Amino acid sequence: MRADVLAACAPWRLALPSRALAGRFGDRMGRGTGASLEFTEFRDYVPGDDLRHVDWRAYARTDALKVRLFRDEVAPHLDVVLDASASLAVTPEKARAALDLVAALEALAAGSGARARVLACDGGRLDDAGPVAFSGGDRGTWLPREPLRPRALRAIVSDFLVADDPAPRLRALAAGAAHVYVVQLLDPWELSPDLSGPTTLVDAEDGAHLDLDLAERAVARYRDRLGRLRDDVARATRAVAGTYALVAAADLPRMLAEGLSPQGVVEPAR
Amino acid sequence: MSFSAPLGLLGLLAVPAVLLLHTLRRRLVTRRVAGLFLFAPDALAEDAGPTRSPLLRTPSLWLELAAAAALGLLLGGPRLSDAGRAPTLVAVLDDGASMAAVVGGEAAAERARDVVRRRLEALPSDGTATLLVSGRPPETLAGPRASRAAALAALPSWRPRRTAHDLAPALDLALELAEPGASVLLVTDRPDPTVPDRVEVVAVGRSASNAAILSARRFPSGADREALAVDVAAWAEGPLPTEVVVRAGEDATGPEVARATVVAEPERPARVTLTLARRDGPLFVALREDALAADGAQVVYAEPLRLVPYAVAMTPPHVAALRLERLESAVDGLVAVPVEEAALVLADAEGPAWPGTTRVVVAPWGAAAERDDWVGPFLLDRGHPLVEGLSLEGVVWSAGRGAGEGRGAVFAGTQALLAEDARDGAAVLRVNLDVERSTLVLAPDWPVLLSNVVERVRASLPGATARHARVGEALVFRSARATSGARFVAPSGREEPAGDGTVLVAAPREPGVHRLVAGGRELARWSVAFVDAAESDLRGAGTVTRPPRRAGAVQGEAAASDEGASPLVRALALAVLALATADAWVLSRGRRRRVAP
User: Fold this and answer.
1) Which of B194, B117, B126 is nearest to B158 (CA)?
2) Are residues B317 and B282 in the same domain?
């Protein structure tokens, strides 16, 4: 884990949903019964039960072996799904910000005692495959090749700059998750293009060219379309009861403080 | 000058061509972007820009530019007043499936076609039209600026079929394509769409009750019978009785097999279960006299369990101790094959694992003498699919103290008891177990674990992972080796390349039977159902005609006479001729000067 990421993440923690989670033993209350100190109920003893949990006072009174059940403690899993298409590396700053966000999500998960995996949209695992090669375009369903873990947390990091409706893809990615965080990462230029006049725009994914005059009118209409696209992603996220955050590519502390925190993905660590 | 006069535009191309010849090149700032499509609608309007390269302002340049401009005007059919302009129509057709609803014996789509047809016929013979179909992205049915005849010819091919979607992208495109004087028309079945001021709305829907099939599934019921369960939902003011008709085959022409009446209530889907003679072929399930055919019919295939080829590579005592001789009776869908043909190998020692196969190695890890007998607590990685349903209650698990490779899924203290390792496309599941000393095999967890392994292997077998899907859900096909040239074929005949690779995925946009074909051979077939409450609910449909709040043009402008054009055309023709002659003279003079001694 990179030291600068750990330092940037130290003041923060993942804002977890109040819904029940599944995962390894940890410091979050789970759905089932387990070994925490929070008592829930009695049940009859069966072979294999932890003898420490047998209620000996009740046995002395009733001759019935009862065990006390306690709430399970779990640390949630986190599956981070990264859009590794070429559009995420349209500028070095955006690519770096994407990797920083993924590393931060891993660090925040580790801070909660959880295990995180990083998977590529339409691809395999990234966390043990060396450097991420942002390449290719957006095809298919965005579902990683490895199955996503049920009832786990999921975070999707993408710019969602695709012409199709994002809702079906988000529905598929969120299916079975305890909670989904949707992080839409955009380069500052993408949020607010400068008026550079006659410009040839080259698509980062398929190399298509477009000549146009980046004047006030064209930029205003672009902003309008981008706003609609952003609203579509936010609406699709709300439809799967997820948390949506629009983040401008910047250094990690700034993205955490000005992007993820105000939009409810992270919260101050107490 | 516009697309209505393509020759004029072609002629005007001579102007930049002349400039191009007279300048070195245009240099524009180049920038890589991710969302090119967000800029695309501006390309036509914003394209080009001032060149910064120096121009040699010769007489020849001015003469050629003037000649090119005059030629463009000439070919564009110049008119002295706006009265001569041919009127245009830009119509957006709502492509939601509810437009296909038949209420009162007629589909809303048919009424929509009539509306557009009447508008097209009201245009003069030289009028032009653009027909757009809503969606994400919107599609062009005719045009841009197609002739009236071409637009009329394209109209019958429109078949509304999409799930609920936003009309705004299509309306935006329509406004981009519409000239200042053109009419912009939206034809839909909902009476209150939100549209820009310039758009005229004609709603042709009719409110009605509707029932839809939410799901239809088949499963075995006895030796030679099968059950068909159909869930029906209703969008109505009260209980809605409807008849479910089942036919053999993939369409309504097959022989009837069964029928039943079901009464669905609003917000409370009803289920009918029919017991039929078992058959291998498909069944066509449809609601009788249903307003919307798209959501009232489905093809249901028999979905036999895909057999998992497996092999046991163990000594006979181990086979007996692990009770593997009863494996086929404990887990469905297994077939024993030689090791080299097996997708699942159960072994008591490490060995080769080929890509696409799973090897389960049951043996204690580490030195033979070092054993720990664990009675719990066991830690299970609940995110791992192989431990789903395991409790390990009352189990004594005797394990070696060695370290196993792979990701742990079951632990006792810090000792991993079960780990999975994926490498080079093969999976190895290592079970750290001394069979002789453990009670795991006697516990219900053992068949559960084996079943999880088998189901995991079954899901990765070549072929279609499921034969039924809904519109928008993924159709997934796995093949043992990379497939090239495969195509997904939709019920409408629309084809889409499936790409190359071992996992082929498509997202169907229309209901019906979809196929995957390669080299003239069908690889797989899916039934795709239409399930969309927003489109199935026809209660909000209505009829209304709403003029544009801010008129762009009056529909059906008077046809123009060409009388005023002739003198101008003649003058332009003369100008082109004179300019070309002058340019030739200037150039020949220059040439003579250059060759003069």
Assistant:
1) B117
2) no
For B385, which of A147, A200, A203 is closest by C-beta distance?
Answer: A147
HSE on the CB side for B166, CA within 13 Å?
16
Task: State pTM to two decimals.
Answer: 0.50
Judging contacts by C-beta atoms under 8 Å, the chain A residues touching residue B31 are: 196, 199-202
pLDDT of residue B564: 44
Range of the structural domain that residue B74 is part of: 6-83+562-595
Q: Which residues pair with B283 in a beta bridge?
A: B248, B300
The minimum CA-CA distance between A269 and chain B, rounded to whole Å, is: 26
Q: How far is B278 from chain A (nearest CA, A)?
A: 33
- Three-state DSSP string of B88-128: EEEEEECCEHHHHCEECCEEHHHHHHHHHHHHHHHCCCCCE
ipTM of the complex model: 0.76
**Does residue B553 lie within any of the structural domains?**
no
CATH code at position B140: 3.40.50.410
In a 3-state reduction of DSSP, which class is residue B377? coil
Total of domains in chain B: 5
Q: Is A37 helix (H, G, I), strand (E, B) or coil?
A: strand
Local structure of residue A258 (DSSP, 8 states): I
Query: Tokens 């079901």 sit at which residue?
Result: B262
Buried b (16+ CB within 10 A) or exposed e, B8-46: beebbebbeebbeebbeebebeebbbbbbbbbbbbbeeb
CB spacing of B382 vs A205 below 8 angstroms: no
> Strand, helix or coil at B43?
helix
* Nearest by Cα to B483 from B463, B507, B499, B505: B499
Q: Are B241 and B216 members of one domain?
A: yes
Compute the distance between CA of residue A121 and CA of residue A162 in angstroms, rounded to an integer.
14
Q: Are residues B328 and B338 in the same domain?
A: yes
- Give B392's contacts in chain A (Cβ within 8 Å): 48
Distance CA B193, CA B168 (A): 10
Tens of pLDDT, residues B37-87: 888 766 544 444 444 445 666 777 888 888 888 887 777 766 555 545 566
Residue extents of the structural domains in chain A = 3-19+77-268, 26-74
Report d(CA B404, CA B409) in Å as an integer.
Answer: 11
Strand extents, DSSP E, B424-546: 426-431, 463-464, 468-470, 475-483, 487-489, 495-497, 501-506, 512-518, 521-529, 543-546
Q: Say what the pLDDT of residue A245 is.
A: 95
Decide if A48 touches B, using CB distance below 8 A: yes
Q: Are residues B316 and B455 in the same domain?
A: yes
**Nearest CB to B34; choose among A90, A140, A168:** A90
Statement to judge: residues B385 and B445 lie in one domain? yes
Distance from CA of A9 to the nearest CA of B (A): 25
The 10s digit of each residue's pLDDT in A50-95 is 676 777 777 777 777 777 665 444 446 889 999 988 899 999 999 9
Task: Say how many C-beta atoms besides its own lie within 10 A of residue A105's C-beta.
Answer: 27
Domain stop point among B290, B305, B320:
B305
| R_g over Cα of chain B | 35
Q: What three-state secondary structure class fits B410?
A: strand
Residue type, B499: G
Tell me, yes or no, whether B436 and B522 share the same domain: no
Residue the block writes with tokens 């955050």? A245
Minimal CA–CA distance to A136: which of A209, A90, A92, A85?
A: A85
**Distance between A11 CA and the closest CA of chain B, angstroms:** 28
B394 and B472 together in one domain: no
Residues of chain B contacting residue A203, judged by C-beta atoms under 8 Å apart: 32-34, 36
Q: Do B41 and A77 touch (CB under 8 A)?
A: no
Per-residue pLDDT band for A157 (boundaries 50, 70, 90) equals very high
Shortest CA distance from A205: residue in chain B: B34
Within a domain: B367: yes
Percent of chain B exceeding pLDDT 90 equals 9
Q: Which structure tokens are listed for A94?
A: 């955006």
Asked whether residue B342 falls in the same domain as residue B436, the answer is yes
Residues B34 and A196 sit within 8 Å (Cβ to Cβ): no
